[in-house]
Amino acid sequence: MSEVVLIRTGTANLASVAAAFHRAGCGVRVTTSADDAATAARLVLPGVGAFGAVAEVIDTLGLRAPLADRIRAGRPTLAICLGLQLLAGGSEESPGAAGLGVIGATATALADGVRRPQLGWNRVAAGAGCRLLSDGSAYFANSFKLDAVPDGWHGALTDHGGEFVAAVERGAVLACQFHPELSGAWGQSLVERWLAAAGEAV
Amino acid sequence: MLLPRIIPCLDVKDGRVVKGVRFQGLRDAGDPVELASAYAEQGADELVILDVSATPEGRGHALDVVRAVRAVLPLPLTVGGGVRVVADAEALLSAGADKIATNTAAVARPQLLDELAGRFGCQCTVLALDAASNGNGWQVVVRSGRDRTGRDALAWAAEAVTRGAGEILLTSWDRDGTGAGYDLELLAAMRRAVPVPIIASGGAAGPKHMAEALQAGADAVLAATIFHDGHTTVADLKAELAGLGVEVRR
Lengths: 202, 250
Hints:
Chain A has 6 helices and 12 strands. Chain A has 202 residues and is α/β, with parallel strands linked by helices. The radius of gyration of chain A is 15 Å and the shape is globular.
């Protein structure tokens, strides 16, 4: 049976993420180890919490270099919600805190005048070239966002007070602003496509 | 665009789903895992589990229920009932909840909201607010409706949001279980009082009531009786909502 390794950076909804992988017939191991982050065949970086607090946990655990290195090298990695924003260099949520810097961008706040946090289902439109992402509806829980699909990545967009990034993919690296584990059958099939792509890349 | 959520609610007591009228006269309404699976298949957008057990043994069952439901549920799961301290919330999150609702305990000790939001984020912190009309406004009722606090419901919601509540699960005590429709005046007043998402609860008998609540400012509509009793399925209800011009996830 294949296995994914989940990074515990604090109080993310790990049980929900683990359940999605169990439903896909996959084993789950939870870790805080930098060695695991470097060597895991399939790694999941769930993210719930504040940008600065989780960035600090990543540094404390020594995860910064292994995470950034494996994403740059295209090793199978799934980042969820705050996990996507952590790929950026920083965030308006926590000025001064450094993200992994894999994507040259800063996460910004949702527009004034829209419901914040965005809690609910929104349309996702996959751009040309996406292999894993497809059009659908996904469950979001966010107050911050990335504004544009970075060069070298394919991506999907959504709209809540303006367009922003729903998810990006590059090979077997997938980073979602929404929660695939909570996005019904559509989200479950995305998880399974990522597992398949990860299997090819391992 | 952000789509409205249709949310079945499971009131769970000692591991079984129950339902009453105005929080009283509870009767058995089924197995939580069977109902959760069915609602997910039918296209529910989220699930709420409220533990209404009165004893510590019942609370233990609630954790088992959350675990079992999480195993089959690919949807957001909000759990409330008996959350008094951060450790209670942590246990529920570890069992598979995504959001935590607090009601009576937050009224008794509002600092609980700051603690939950500080630890788990405002997107995880839901204020469950039971409101009863008092003629010229609404007051907060607690302890499953047994106690009227005299506290203004709108002022309490606004305070809760400043403390970190990221969503309001707003139940009309007057309408709960009656099928008389949501309290639209309460919803409209709450919409003006807070900027966060509002889940309307209490009184739904069908899609027309839900469309009205969404029009009045709700972001999501919660119902229990109409689903448990087999009056309608989530899929049928969404089809009828679409017919009323409400864009829903299907």
